[in-house]
Specification:
34% of the residues lie in helices and 25% in strands. The chain is an alpha/beta fold.
C-alpha cells in the first residue's frame, strides 16, 4: 500500500532527517514508529501525508509515485488519509460537531451527508453526548477523541497519528490506543509515531525503530526497546 525506497529528507542543515529509509506498509496494518526526539518519526509521517517531499528516493501510495501527483491527485491522496496530532488542533470557536464537520466541509461534501456522517463518527469515539460542547469544556482525552473523529469521518484508508497520547494521562492514553485498535480492526491502516513505550510493549504490533534518520529495526510483534 505504502512503499518507501531509499528515502532521504534533508532540511536546512547538512544532517538528514531521514537517510536512506526503505520499508513497506501493507493495507490493514497497525504499526508504531519509535525512536528518540529527532529520530525522523514526524518527518516520515509528513512524507506519507505528502505535506513535504523527499530530497531523494521514492514514495509510492497504492502503486502510484507520489512525486508525480498533480494538484487534483494530491487532494485525492489527502482525502484518503486521516491525521491525528499531539496538540489536537481543534478550532476553539467551533463546537465538537462543527470541528468534525469542518473536515468534510473543506472537501466540499454536501450538508445532508455531513449531518449523517458526523454523528456516526462521534458515536464511534464515545462523544455523541458532547456534540454541542466547545473544546475548552473538554478534557485532554476528550479533545483527542474529537481529533480522531475528525480523522475518521472521511472514511480514510490510513490513519497517521503523531504522538497522539503525548498530552493525556495514562488511563486516557490506553483508551485512545484501544480506539485506534478498533479503527484498525475495521480495516483501516494505522501508523502511530510515539514515545509511549508502555503502550507499544502492551499492544505487540509491528514496530519500526528510527535512529538519527535511519531505520534500525523492523519487528512484526515488537517492543519499544530491542530485547536481546
Amino acid at each position: 500500500m505504502i512503499e518507501l525506497r531509499q528515502v532521504k529528507k534533508v532540511y536546512n542543515s547538512s544532517t538528514p532527517a531521514l537517510d536512506g529509509v526503505s520499508l513497506e506498509i501493507e493495507r490493514g496494518e497497525f504499526l508504531f514508529l519509535v525512536g528518540h526526539s529527532g529520530a525522523g518519526k514526524s518527518t516520515l509521517i509528513k512524507l506519507i501525508f505528502s505535506e513535504i517531499k523527499p530530497s531523494s528516493g521514492q514514495i509510492s501510495f497504492m502503486g502510484s509515485n507520489m512525486a508525480a501527483f498533480k494538484a487534483g491527485e494530491l487532494l485525492k491522496h489527502r482525502r484518503r488519509i486521516g491525521m491525528v496530532f499531539q496538540d489536537y488542533r481543534l478550532l476553539k470557536q467551533k463546537t465538537v460537531f462543527e470541528n468534525v464537520a469542518f473536515a468534510l466541509e473543506v472537501l466540499g461534501e454536501p450538508p445532508k451527508k455531513i449531518q449523517k456522517k458526523v454523528p456516526a463518527a462521534l458515536e464511534k469515539v464515545g462523544l455523541a453526548a458532547k456534540h454541542n460542547s466547545f473544546p475548552s469544556e473538554l478534557s485532554g482525552g476528550e479533545q483527542q477523541r474529537v481529533g480522531i473523529a475528525r480523522a475518521i469521518v472521511k472514511d480514510p484508508l490510513v490513519i497517521l497519528a503523531d504522538e497522539p497520547t503525548g498530552n493525556v494521562d495514562p488511563n486516557n492514553s490506553w483508551q485512545l490506543m484501544e480506539l485506534f485498535k478498533a479503527i484498525n480492526d475495521g480495516g483501516t491502516t494505522v501508523v502511530i509515531a510515539t514515545h509511549a513505550w508502555d503502550m507499544v510493549d502492551r499492544m505487540q504490533k509491528r514496530v519500526i525503530a528510527l535512529e538519527k534518520g535511519r531505520l534500525v529495526r523492523d519487528e512484526l510483534r515488537g517492543s519499544y526497546c530491542h530485547e536481546n
